[in-house]
Amino acid sequence: MDQEFKQEILESGLVACNSAKGELDDDGKPRRTGSMWTASAHIITAIIGSGVLSLAWGMAQLGWIVGVGALLSFSCITYYTSGLLADCYRYPNPVTGKRNYTYRETVHSYLGEKMRKACGFVQFIFLSGSAVGYIITASISMMAIRESNCYHKEGHGASCKFSSNWYILGLGITEIFVSQIPNFHKLSWLSVIAATMSFAYASIGLGLAFAQVISGEGGRTTLTGVEVGMDLTTEDKIWRMFRAVGDMAFACAYSPILIEIQDTLRSSPPENKVMKKANAIAVLTSTTFYMMCGCLGYAAFGNNAPGNMLTGFGFYDPFWLIDLANLCIVVHLLGAYQVLSQPVFNTVESWASNRWPKSKFVSSEYPLNIGKKKLNFSANLLRLTWRTMFVVVTALLAMALPFFNDILALLGALAYWPMTVYFPVEMYIAQNKIKRRSIRWLGLELLNLACFLITMVVACSAIQGFNQGLQTYKPFKF
User: Fold this and answer.
1) How far apart are CA 264 and CA 105, in angstroms?
2) φ and ψ at residue 124, rounded to 5 degrees
3) How many Å apart are CA 316 and CA 261, to the nearest integer?
4) Which candidate, 9, 37, 14, places its Cα nearest to that of 24?
5) Coiled coil located at which positions (predicted)?
6) Closest Cα to residue 254, out of 390, 103, 90?
7) How far, in Å, CA of 254 to CA of 271, rounded?
8) Quick one: three-class SS letters along 301-354?
9) How far apart are CA 450 and CA 74, in angstroms?
């Protein structure tokens, strides 16, 4: 026992020594180097994704009043609850407490084991589903590039229709290689590139929409959106409105990876303060883009706005600019896929390491060399097989269910209430010991209830949309 105690003292001394030298953080792990700007880049990469392309369609279903109100409401709720979540990164004190490395660990610290399992299940489904959605969106953009060049070369009357499945295969193969990046801390460069691409294609979409509006070729818009008539029943109108709300919720959701992003920040100044500033930058940036894309897109296309805004400008003129926008989408979503998938990868790998700590298959790293030159990279058999399997499954699901707006609505329903509202609110109540039935408690729980009810109706509308799509779609057709 004395020998073990001496060993602990020695190890603690080494950690303290290395921490003093700046090599390790206060928890004994390698020193984190993230800043407000890298965190903002991670968030923008995750938040400004495929959701921005559906906002014009969402505005068309809801109209000017409800559409703008819904988008602003989701953005404000996301900003408020992300601040609550940032304070819960450390337990029990937001500045000096013990670190929580993942969203699930944070929930476990404040709400217990049962809630941790529930959170893990929801987070796993949302992040995996988002990976599927990103492959679908990227493949649509790649197919749009081919169609655009086909029409430009063969003429407007040519038959330029292609299957997206070949592109899904190509994206899957690419993601298999990129997914071998060991952890989140190595992804800052990818997030910066991806965030830049998101600004690029959103700006191109905005520019094309603005040009169409000022040219006098904008579509007809109404305060209440698409009107009920011969082509649209009242029932379908209601279902589409709920799906549009789900699309907007998905566009604003990034809380499932907020703790993982916060864990990349350097410890001084306090992580929660830096994260709140990063949240403010990211939410303000994304909301500005969303409002411009949604409103200008709706003004450009009117009530006939397409599900994907960039496919509504045609493939003819200017074809090169639309090609560039779609290429930016592909690059962005390649990075966003990794940002959202890394927490899933790390969850399984951490579980395997704890379950089989002595297994070479799980823990051994094999350095890679090119000739006599050593690379700053190593291979791991678990990482190679598990991550490859994950990418293959998401690619197969993308081929089986390529329903863009319905996928986004369902993901919005699955993630927005539990991950963005329920868990942050309940952890904040537990952390601050807010008394039941107090004014503050009632306000927080009322927000919880309202978002839960919205989630239920959005999920039902998404399932109804899947049912309609599957009646006509033939999966795996090349």
Assistant:
1) 15
2) -60, -45
3) 41
4) 14
5) none
6) 103
7) 18
8) HHHHCCCCHHHCCCCCCCHHHHHHHHHHHHHHHHHHHHHHHHHHHHHHHHHHHH
9) 12
If we measure between CA atoms, which residue out of 285, 254, 243 comes closest to residue 59?
243
Question: 232: which strand partners?
Answer: 229
- Could you count the other beta carbons within 10 Å of the beta carbon of residue 210? 16
Collapse the DSSP code of 127 into the 3-class scheme (helix H, G, I; strand E, B; otherwise coil) and give the result: helix
Tokens in use for 129?
């589903």
Determine the Cα–Cα distance for residues 297 and 307; give it in Å rounded to an integer: 11
Region label for 99, one of left (φ > 0), alpha (ψ between -120 and 50) or beta (otherwise)? beta
Residues 326, 145: contact at Cβ < 8 Å? yes
Residue 5, classed as helix, strand or coil, is helix
440: three-class secondary structure by DSSP: helix
Question: Where in the chain are the domains?
Answer: 36-470
Beta bridge pairs of residue 374: 369
Mean pLDDT of 120-145: 83
Q: What is the pLDDT of residues 7-41, one digit of tens each?
A: 443 444 434 444 445 578 887 788 888 889 888 88
The bridge status of strand 373-379 relative to strand 366-370 is antiparallel
pLDDT in tens, 218-246: 788 888 888 887 678 888 888 889 888 88
Over residues 294-337, the pLDDT tens digits come to 898 899 888 888 777 776 665 456 778 888 888 888 888 888 88
**Global pTM?**
0.78
pLDDT band for position 50 (cuts 50, 70, 90): low
| 204: CB partners within 8 A, 6+ apart | 310, 321, 322, 324, 325, 328
Cβ atoms of 127 and 418 within 8 Å: the answer is: no
pLDDT tens for 248-304 read 887 777 787 889 889 989 888 889 999 999 999 988 988 888 888 889 889 988 888
Strand partners, 367: 378
The answer to whether the CB of 344 falls within 8 A of the CB of 184 is no
DSSP-assigned letter for residue 369: E
- In the block, residue with structure tokens 């537990």: 430
Counting DSSP H helices and E strands in the chain, the numbers are 16, 4
Residues 58 and 306 sit within 8 Å (Cβ to Cβ): no
Q: Is 291 left (phi over 0), alpha (psi -120 to 50) or beta?
A: alpha
As a whole number, mean pLDDT of residues 341-345 equals 85
Q: Please, what is the end-to-end C-alpha distance for the chain in angstroms?
A: 67
What tokens were used for 236? 């379908």
Fold of 36-470: Amino acid/polyamine transporter I (1.20.1740)
Q: Could you identify the residue written with the tokens 């599900």?
A: 307
Give the distance, in angstroms, between the CA of residue 65 and the centroid of all CA atoms in the same chain: 27
Q: % helix / strand / coil in the chain, to the nearest 5?
A: 75, 5, 20
What tokens does 461 get?
């509308």
> CA nearest 139: which of 444, 460, 447, 396?
396
